[in-house]
Write a structure and sequence with these properties.
Rossmann fold, binds adenosine-5'-diphosphate, binds magnesium ion
Length: 359
């Protein structure tokens, strides 16, 4: 997808700003606190219903404003124009997609594919499992028709089951929800398995360019239960006593995880922070490439504080790949990274929450 217009209202220090981006690399430059990251957060909000710096109610809405508002127009891979508007007040929201009201925020987000690399992205490889599960689900929401419905069915079953466990209610109702939970959860695992398999060649292609010294990449998915030994239904039954004691469900796709390994790093030594960043970026770019293959279009790619996150060699390699691929990219920085020299770039100045084109 290619954003052709972005209107931002009441996000952090931005009262009202408009960006008419170029089709390829877009560079947002400005001093610290100027509002550059806030512009990326606006795009990210459309794609995820939240910011990469936390939930909407945790400070995304401009102080003194009631709600954050974002409006965007874009072209999809076939050149068709779309428009989306979202007004988010923290607890409630209103969305419009191509002139229609949106019933669930997830439906709006499923239409807007955004991949974000920002200063906390290393958590994708070095943090807890939550961002890795989100990563998996994001990929599947965007390429697998029906995954979102399947996922919602599972989350509902999980909530119902947990409520029964908390109430120490082990009767027929729990049997019924166990059945539903397993029925909803098994397909999630199958989707995730095939997604990881489809993703792997893309990850290998990206890492070959970005991290050649690491060798060949491998992906390992953990289902969230002893998947190779038993069905999800059996795992639930086996864990029931423990679940009743703890008051929540200890097995299932909500406990899934995955990891990246490299042939040249067999010892599984922990990554340095800088390496974790690069591996996380490779995973994000691989996912973007896979989406391109599956849907015929790139997600919009956001690279926050690009120059301070990566060294020059890796910046060069990333920009080379993205510019050659024709993806639309939004980069922020205090100054233009030297690696953009010789590339077609649309430059913008951000100052006091205002965006203006720079020549
Ligand atoms: N809810 C808010 N209301 C008003 N201003 C905010 C809010 N949250 C953050 N800010 C201010 O907005 C600015 C945010 O800028 P940011 O987008 O992070 O800038 P940059 O990425 O250019 O450094 C900071 O000056 C910050 O103090
Ligand atoms: Mg910033």
């Amino acid at each position: 997808m290619r954003v052709t217009r972005l209107d931002v209202q009441d996000i952090r220090s931005i009262r009202e700003a408009r960006l008419i981006p170029g089709p390829g690399l877009n560079l947002l430059l400005g001093e610290n606190g100027a509002g550059k990251t806030s512009v990326l957060e606006a795009l990210h909000l459309l794609g995820y219903g939240r910011s990469f710096r936390g939930r909407v109610r945790d400070g995304l809405i401009r102080t003194e404003a009631e709600a954050a508002q974002v409006y965007a127009e874009w072209e999809d891979g076939t050149g068709k124009a779309h428009r989306v508007g979202l007004r988010h007040a923290g607890n409630d929201w209103m969305g419009r997609l191509d002139g229609e009201d949106v019933a669930q925020l997830g439906d709006l987000c499923a239409a807007v594919a955004v991949t974000t690399f920002e200063p906390a992205s290393h958590a994708l490889v070095s943090g807890g499992g939550e961002p890795r599960r989100r990563y998996l689900d994001w990929g599947l929401f965007h390429v697998e028709h029906g995954y979102l419905a399947q996922w919602r069915r599972y989350v509902r079953a999980l909530k119902q089951r947990n409520a029964l466990l908390k109430a120490r209610n082990a009767g027929a109702q729990l049997d019924a929800w166990d059945h539903e939970f397993a029925e909803a959860g098994e397909p999630l695992q199958r989707h995730r398995e095939s997604y990881m398999a489809a993703l792997l060649p893309h990850l290998q292609a990206v890492t070959e360019q970005l991290l050649p010294a690491f060798g060949i990449a491998a992906l390992e998915l953990q289902a969230g239960w002893k998947h190779s030994q038993m069905s999800l239904a059996d795992a639930l039954l086996l864990g029931r006593e423990r679940d009743l004691a703890l008051g929540h469900t200890g097995v299932g796709p909500h406990r899934a995880d995955w990891r990246v390994d490299f042939v040249a790093r067999p010892e599984r030594e922990p990554y340095s922070r800088g390496q974790a960043k690069l591996v996380a970026l490779a995973c994000l770019l691989a996912q973007a490439r896979h989406l391109r293959e599956a849907r015929g279009e790139w997600p919009v790619i956001l690279l926050d504080d690009f120059a301070s996150e990566l060294d020059s060699r890796h910046r060069g390699r990333v920009l080379e790949q993205l510019a050659a691929a024709g993806a639309q990219v939004f980069l922020t920085g205090v100054e233009a990274p030297p690696e953009v020299a010789g590339k077609t770039v649309a430059m913008f100045h951000v100052e006091h929450g205002q965006i203006s084109p720079a020549s």
